[in-house]
Amino acid sequence: MSLLEVENVTLKFGGVTAVNNVSFSVEEGEVFALVGPNGAGKSTLFNLVSRFYDPVAGDIRFAGESILKKAPHEIARLGIARTFQNIELFEQATVLQNLLVGRHRHRRGNMFSETLFTPFVRREERRHREAVEKVIDFLDLQPYREKYIAGLPYGVRKVVEMGRALAIEPRLLLLDEPASGLSVEETQDVAFWVEDIKTQMGVTVLMVEHDMHLVASVSDRVMALADGKTLAIGTAQEVQNHPKVIEAYIGVADENERVVA
Amino acid sequence: MRTVFKTTYDADINLFRHGAQAFWYLSLLALMIVLPFFLSDFAIGEMTNVLIWAIAGMGLMILVGQTGQASLGHAAFLAIGCYANVLLQERLGLPFILSLPLAGIIAGLSGVALAIPTSKLHGIYLAIATLAVSILVDDLIVIAEPLTGGINGLLAPTIDIFGIQFDRYGTPVRFYGLILFVTVLVVLAYRNIQRSPLGRSFAAVRDSEISAQAMGVNVARTKAVAFGISTAITGLAGALMGHFAGIFNNETFTIIISIQMLLMIVIGGLGSIHGAFFGAVVIALLPQAIARVRDGIGALTGTSIAIPGMESAVFGAILILFILFEPMGIYGRWLKIRTYFELFPFYRRDMFRRQRSYLKTERMR
């Protein structure tokens, strides 16, 4: 049984079919990448798995169970964490507070015990703080612990967002363009981290990424999409050389076209 | 600038960040306890008034400053707390020590009842919905005359706790002490919420609903809880306000009071406990200050000037000045001044960026 199974999913926005009968499955412990030109439906697929959108047809199963009946906030509790393409951090809070929000899934107190700050709540806070510190160590965020997001550079925010998703302690991590807008060095860091997330933490990764170099270096399998339809699934090598993929990216020469000299 | 050397996780969890901070806040508390013994009854009354407004301000601050939800209807919850407290004492014969927390709970539950249908509303739409509640409660008080006394209002009884009397005029120091006690409890509760998962889920809803959801925060529920806690605290303030005023009717809690409360926390500084207190000082003492200035000018020129609506005009002018020149409020200004001296001479002009957490619209959906 695969960890995540997306089966014949279709989503329409008015007359536009954003995702058209797409199926794929992500196996436990692999890094699965979605690639494709802009508007191919990659982020829409993410939002479907996060339950921000309802598909018009098809089913999405996580660990064998359909998630289509779940509310968006219940998805994190199942163990699915995500980042956003355009960074959705809590701007008026510190890095530490942002990461601690990621621990919300593991909250065991209630509003009454927390208002009184009982010894139980304090023990819980220590536990969350310790878990978050591990994430900070993993992503080298030590210099930024107390900094407000509003004042942080883009590259650091990107990392904080990944850290917040890891603080959830997910089984499946959805990374929406983790390397977009990052420098070459920062992209290399992301590649190492994705590798470590897979091997050390045992977390399955599903990511959308345009940087084919990064995709080729970290992902076990790749799916190419265009216009909401699946073009090819396979290793990075296979997908890159697939005629349909080449056509979607570069276009194909028209046989009747003549070069007019 | 103080650098705290942290050796345990508790350093991030404790009530105070370091010993010096604890010392200064406890000194302030000691001063607040001792001060009334050296002041006139009038000054004690003014201080009491400031504290009651500060409690109301903290109530609204939880909603607007922490959770980012607008409310133009908090006077309604002052009214609910105030009437509930007095009616529980008069009609059911409950002692103050029970009626006060019950008044808070009743106001809190009404807040939750408002939050459930309005949980999908944002910004200006939520403001209008809450505004409607404020007007509705005003009318309800008049309609429910057999219970509330209508426009004739109600008299608040003298507070009696185990035989000890707390009266604003009879025993002003004692009355002040009681209010200070409640204020400290509310501050503690507020701080506890801020440093626990509940407060972080409020901030998450304020800054990005979409990613709060992705973190497993139930947004509708969190908003309802924020409304409940906010209106419960406001209800407590309303109950105390009733005892402070002695007599009150529907006019005591008009829409103007709702707007003043919002002014108070914006002027004080959104998102902090300090802001509620700074704002309360301005709101509670400004009418007195205006009267003093007016009398002073009158005495100088030998004429008596009484401009109707002067108070509202001055409030409005102050708000405009703050929004234009100091959107972070008095507390924001204080932080800037403190940072300037702590970092002297390395302070930069743009160290504090303009906050944009208030009345934010959602990008997705």
Layout: helices, strands, pairs:
The complex is a heterodimer of chains A (261) and B (365).
Chain A lengths: L3 E10 L2 E11 L4 E5 L6 H8 L7 E6 L2 E2 L5 H7 L1 E3 L12 H7 L9 H6 L2 H21 L14 H14 L4 E5 L7 H16 L4 E5 L3 H7 L2 E6 L2 E6 L1 H6 L1 H8 L11
Parallel strand pairs in A: 3-8, 3-9, 6-7, 7-8
Antiparallel strand pairs in A: 1-2, 1-4, 4-5, 9-10
Chain B lengths: L9 H4 L5 H16 L6 H26 L7 H17 L5 H23 L4 H21 L1 H4 L5 E2 L3 E3 L2 E3 L5 H23 L2 H11 L1 H6 L4 H27 L1 E2 L6 H14 L4 H29 L8 H16 L3 H14 L23
Antiparallel strand pairs in B: 1-4, 2-3
Helix pairs in contact in B: 3-8, 3-11, 3-12, 3-13, 4-5, 4-6, 4-11, 5-11, 9-11, 12-13, 12-14, 12-15, 13-15
Précis, in short:
Chain A is of the alpha/beta class. Chain A is built from 10 helices and 10 strands. Helix content of chain A is 38%, strand content 23%.
List keywords for this structure.
heterodimer; A: 261 residues; alpha/beta; Rossmann fold; 6-stranded mixed beta sheet; 4-stranded antiparallel beta sheet; 10 helices; B: 365 residues; mainly alpha; two-stranded antiparallel ribbon; 15 helices; globular
Task: Give a description of the structure.
- The complex is a heterodimer of chains A (261) and B (365).
- Chain A has helices spanning 42-49, 72-78, 95-101, 111-116, 119-139, 154-167, 184-199, 212-218, 236-241, 243-250, and strands at residues 4-13, 16-26, 31-35, 57-62, 65-66, 80-82, 172-176, 204-208, 221-226, 229-234.
- Chain A is of the alpha/beta class.
- Chain A has two domains: 1-79 and 171-186 and 205-261, P-loop containing nucleotide triphosphate hydrolases (Rossmann fold, 3-Layer(aba) Sandwich); 87-170, P-loop containing nucleotide triphosphate hydrolases (Rossmann fold, 3-Layer(aba) Sandwich), CATH 3.40.50.300.
- In chain A, the strands form two sheets. In chain A, strands 6-7-8-3-9-10 form a six-stranded mixed sheet, with helices on both faces. A four-stranded antiparallel sheet of chain A has the order 2-1-4-5, covered by helices on one side.
- In chain A, helix 5 (119-139) crosses helix 6 (154-167).
- Chain A is globular and about 75 Å long.
- In chain B, helix 3 runs parallel beside helix 8 (172-194), helix 4 packs antiparallel against helix 5 and helix 9 (197-207) packs across helix 11.
- With 365 residues, chain B is mainly α.
- Chain B is built from 15 helices and four strands.
- Mean pLDDT of chain B is 89; it is low at 355-365.
- Chain B is globular, with a radius of gyration of 21 Å.
- The interface between A and B is large, with 46 and 38 residues.
